[in-house]
Amino acid sequence: MSSAASTRPSLSSLPAAPLTLWQQFELEAALRQAMPELIGLRRHIHAHPELSGAEHQTAALVAGELRLLGWDVREGVGRTGVVAELGPAAAPLVALRVDMDALPVEERTGLPFASCHQGLMHACGHDLHTAIGLGVARLLSPLAHRLTARVRLLFQPAEEIAQGAAWMLADGAMEGVQALFGVHVFPSLPVGSIGVRSGSLTAAAGELEVEVLGEGGHGARPHQSTDAIWIAARVVSGLQEAISRRLDALHPVVVSFGKIEGGKAFNVIADHVRLLGTVRCLDTEVHAELPGWIEDTVHAICRGYGGEARVRYRCISPPVHNDPALTELVEEAALALLDRPQVRRLEQPSLGAEDFAELLTAAPGTMFRLGVAGPEGCPPLHNGGFNPDEGAIAVGVQVLTLSLLLWMERRV
Ligand code: NI
Q1: Structural domains in the chain, sorted by start
Q2: Which residue in 288, 302, 301 sits closest to 253, CA to CA?
Q3: Distance 184 CA to ligand 1 centre (A)
């Protein structure tokens, strides 16, 4: 690890009396002790990636570690999810969520602890997230009897398929939670820094399926048939045009078709084409109206050319909307550890999706971006070369531990 953050001055710069638990906390000493083990855990998890919904070994490892640390642990919450709690039972409840799943990506980092499973890789940093969650658990456990709120840790499965949060939610993982924190690694920021943003952080995402129904015939006489391929081409371009002419440009919407199939032979007019795509937008209200708008637009295009359509829209995830007060609190905690330039306010949200949003339907919360780019930079997420700087683990553990302690004082 090479993080400057682990050598930051402690909290001594904060106002002196009366000292709160947050201010008294010997963060650095605790962290220094924990780091070698956390790095070891991260590398073990990295070497043994598991796909969404199949995080059995990871969950068992997490549950075992948490029990050793004295947390109350429940396994199988949201299938392979793990929930752990610490602190006074009747106190207000604050939560941290981290995710555990890997991706069907072939690793080519050449690291000594690279994936042992061919075709599987922690290419989205969820191995770091899991280690960070365990780090927070470790730092908080000696404080169990001094905590003024109960802390719940959610180790979530299946984030990559945007289902794990819903599974955990359905199993009651958010019941009673008053505030939720989350973190995601971010290769565009250098290690030792974080990015915060009030309001939209990530986009709503949906899956769009359009079936264009025409009438088959001979390729030589298209006027005697209804060409589904021609109409599908109209749908693909027509939707883009309609977005630019019919939707408010201040609320961007992205529709991308990633799959198209149809037709049987070079000289046969296709009677059926299937388009599969993804839809992204940042605004909750626009997102609520999008499925109906897309359906109407596609039907209008298809009918205009003599065909019919079947349209299906599946909401993958709502937008992540970061609560302003909780975001400010994370910023304050981070500023106790890092210099101002290392605590960045992100100007732009991302059109990526994150099912943390699902959990935010149950309680306000905030997710921050954790810088992981080393001196050589860092390949993008979901890339086989993705290699985050492990120094980020220390930063993530510190910022989140302090955020939880600070929440106990402020009850934002
Ligand atoms: Ni991710």
Answers
A1: 3-202+319-410 (3.40.630.10), 204-317 (3.30.70.360)
A2: 288
A3: 6
